[in-house]
Amino acid sequence: MNLNQLEAFLYVSFTGSFSKAGEILFISQPTVSARIKSLEQILGCSLFNRNDKYATLTKEGEIFLPYAKTMLEQMDEGIHSIQNRNLITEGEISISSVLIMADFILPKIISEFYKVFPKIKLTVHTGHTHNVLNMVLNYEVPLGITRSVNHPKIDSIHLFDDELVLVTYPSHPFYHKQHVSLQDVANEPLILFNRGSIDWTLINKAFHNLKIESNIVLETDNIKLVKQMIMKKMGIGILPRLSLEEELRADNLRIVNISDLPQLSRPYQIIFLKDTKIEGLLKFFVDFVSTQIKQMMK
Question: Which of 100, 161, 173, 256 is most buried, by the most CB atoms less than 10 A from its CB?
Fold first, then answer.
């Protein structure tokens, strides 16, 4: 019995699919099948009920599952203990991140991380919040960086809160004002980010509660497009503050407060499965990201 056999068994049990387990482990489906078959021969029993679509655990598979988890966890603990003792900081880490973090925060953090840990290879997948959550739930990555999510299988580490702000361009009448009202905003062509998101829902609800009709001329899930269209004077927009650092520094855009709109903010967090142990290389990464973000937000 070896580590490869146990990994194949666990990932087939988690995903219900030999092919999906192969994708996660970067091996072919026949290789997964061969590893499961050899494990079954060692144990003297079938571990899965197989059909065209799904693989489900047999009674023997259900009995063996917690022991297989324990064996792998103990193996990982042994590896991490040696790494921590000898300060071995090399290996690979795969994460998934929402696009806004990947576009505006992670480049700085990854650059600094590589300076400190040049022998750790990072693989970063990007997508929307539901994509990040699904990759973590499906054991495709151990860590996700996303806006807040609530799921019974997920634990999280808070990173920071980012607020939504009204943004305008230099020649717009709002540019030199400190405050405007929501009615003032409604009278202007408005560009919104990510229809259907919680951000969009919060903004739309604010207009609805005050019985104000907004003049939305463009909605998109691409922040860079929103900023470009604002700078091209198509309208004003509401965007996450963290996406605006470069344009604010260059005075290409300016934030204007909305006096009768409560602060709209969303927390960002690192998410992981509740049975994932944050130790070894994962702990190096989580601690580094948390420290870097605290310094950036000062």
Answer: 100
Question: Among all chains, which residue has been given the structure tokens 């840990």?
Answer: 117
Return the CATH class of domain 3-85: mainly alpha
Highest mean pLDDT among 27-41, 69-83, 249-263, 284-298: 27-41
DSSP letter for 242, please.
Answer: G
pTM: 0.68
Q: Is the pLDDT of residue 3 over 90?
A: no
> Are 87-160+267-296 and 162-266 the same fold in CATH?
yes
Beta pairing partners, 167: 237, 255
39-53, 106-120, 209-223, 239-253: lowest mean pLDDT where? 209-223
SS3 295: helix
Going by C-alpha positions, the residue among 143, 166, 165 that lies closest to residue 156 is 143
Phi, psi of 40 (to 5 degrees): -65, -35
Closest C-alpha to 73, from 269, 273, 271: 273
In this prediction, residues 138-159 reach a mean pLDDT of 92
For the range 76-85, what are the long-range contacts, defined as Cβ-Cβ under 8 Å and sequence gap of 24 or more? Answer: 76/277, 76/279, 76/280, 77/277, 77/279, 79/280, 80/279, 80/280, 80/281, 83/280, 83/281, 84/280
State yes or no: pLDDT of 269 exceeds 90: yes
Tokens representing 128 are 């929307």
- What CATH code is assigned to 87-160+267-296? 3.40.190.10
Report the CATH fold assignment for 162-266.
D-Maltodextrin-Binding Protein; domain 2 (3.40.190)
**Nearest-CA neighbor of 49 among 39, 59, 35?**
59
Residue 88 has pLDDT above 60, yes or no: no
Higher pLDDT, 166 or 199: 166
What tokens were used for 83?
Answer: 């790494």
